[in-house]
Design brief:
The complex is a heterodimer of chains A (about 110) and B (about 140).
Chain A (H helix, E strand, L loop, with lengths): L1 E7 L2 E10 L4 H13 L4 E5 L3 E4 L1 H16 L3 E5 L3 H9 L8 E2 L2 H8 L1
Parallel strand pairs in A: 2-3, 2-4, 3-5, 5-6
Antiparallel strand pairs in A: 1-2
Chain B lengths: L3 E7 L5 H15 L3 H22 L7 E9 L2 E8 L26 H9 L2 E7 L2 E9 L2
Antiparallel strand pairs in B: 1-2, 2-3, 3-5, 4-5
The chains are: A alpha/beta (about 110), B alpha+beta (about 140).
C-alpha cells in the first residue's frame, strides 16, 4: 500500500494505491487521523490505483466518515476501479459516502 | 496444478502471505478474471482472519486446512479448523442501510463472503468447523 497526499484549495486529496488489508490498514488509519487532528476536515480519497481492500480497510474508511461527520467535515471517494466499487456497493457504502467517477467531479462538490 | 489442491496454514495472521501466493498460482492456472479473483481472495482472507482472531484467540499452533477444487467452472473451497464452534451462516449480518451515525465499523467480513459467493454450507464434525464456499467462475 502506498499513500500520497496533495492539498487542492481547502481539500486534502489522499491517494491510496495497492492493497489495503489487515497489515496495511493501521498505517492508513494513522495517516488519516494525523491529518484530521491537524484540522483537515475536507478529505477526498482518490482510489484510482487501489487494487484490493478487505474489511479492516473498509472499517478505516467508515470510521473516518463517522469521525468527519462528528466534526461537520466532508469525505468523498473517487475514481474507483469496477471491482473495488462492487465491494463498496456490497457493504452499502454508496448510501453513506459520496462516490464520484473522477477527481475533477469530486473536487467541485467541495466548492 | 491439478484440479484438486490442499493448503495447510498455521493459525497466525502472517500465514495469509502463503494463502496469497497459493491463490496467485491457482488463479493463473485456472485463468480466472479479476472479478472472480477478488471475490475468492477477499472471501478467503475474511474467513481466515476470522478463524485466527475468534476461533483460536491467539493460539498460533493450530492448523487450518483449505481444500480447493475447480470443476465445471465452479470453484469449491472447503475450510476446516478445530477452533471454537462458529457457524457464519447463522450470524446476523451488519446493518448496511442505516444512516452513517448508526453504522457499526465492524462485521463486514462475513457479509462480504456471503454476498460474493454463490453457495455456502457449514457443518460441525469431529470437533471441527467445516465451511464450504462455491463460486461460479464461468
Amino acid at each position: 500500500m502506498q499513500i500520497s497526499e496533495e492539498k487542492v484549495g481547502s481539500v486534502l486529496v489522499i491517494s491510496v494505491s495497492g492493497r489495503v488489508e489487515m497489515f496495511t490498514s493501521p498505517r492508513l488509519k494513522e495517516t488519516i487521523l494525523s491529518h484530521i487532528n491537524k484540522g483537515e476536515y475536507h478529505l477526498l480519497f482518490d482510489l484510482s490505483e487501489l487494487d484490493y481492500i478487505s474489511s479492516p480497510g473498509l472499517g478505516v474508511l467508515l470510521y473516518t466518515a463517522k469521525t468527519l461527520q462528528d466534526k461537520k467535515g466532508k469525505m468523498i471517494l473517487c475514481s474507483l476501479k469496477a471491482h473495488i466499487h462492487e465491494v463498496f456497493k456490497i457493504c452499502g457504502f454508496e448510501k453513506v459516502l459520496p462516490i464520484y467517477k473522477t477527481r475533477e467531479e469530486a473536487l467541485k462538490v467541495f466548492k | 496444478m491439478s484440479a484438486k489442491k490442499i493448503l495447510t496454514l498455521k493459525s497466525r495472521f502472517e500465514e495469509i502471505k502463503k494463502l496469497n501466493r497459493f491463490l496467485k498460482e491457482f488463479f493463473k492456472y485456472h485463468s480466472l478474471d479479476t472479478r472472480n479473483k477478488l471475490a475468492i481472495q477477499l472471501s478467503l482472507e475474511e474467513i481466515f482472519n476470522n478463524i485466527v482472531m475468534y476461533g483460536y484467540q491467539g493460539e498460533k499452533q493450530h492448523e487450518i486446512v483449505f481444500h480447493f477444487e475447480n470443476k465445471n467452472n465452479v470453484v469449491t473451497i472447503s475450510i476446516e479448523d478445530d477452533g471454537i464452534s462458529f457457524n457464519p451462516l447463522t450470524r446476523a449480518g451488519p446493518e448496511i442501510t442505516t444512516p452513517l451515525q448508526d453504522r457499526q465499523v465492524g462485521g463486514l467480513g462475513i457479509h462480504l463472503v456471503r454476498s460474493q459467493m454463490d453457495h455456502l454450507s457449514y457443518q460441525r464434525k469431529n470437533n471441527k468447523n467445516i465451511l464450504t464456499i462455491k463460486k461460479n467462475v464461468k
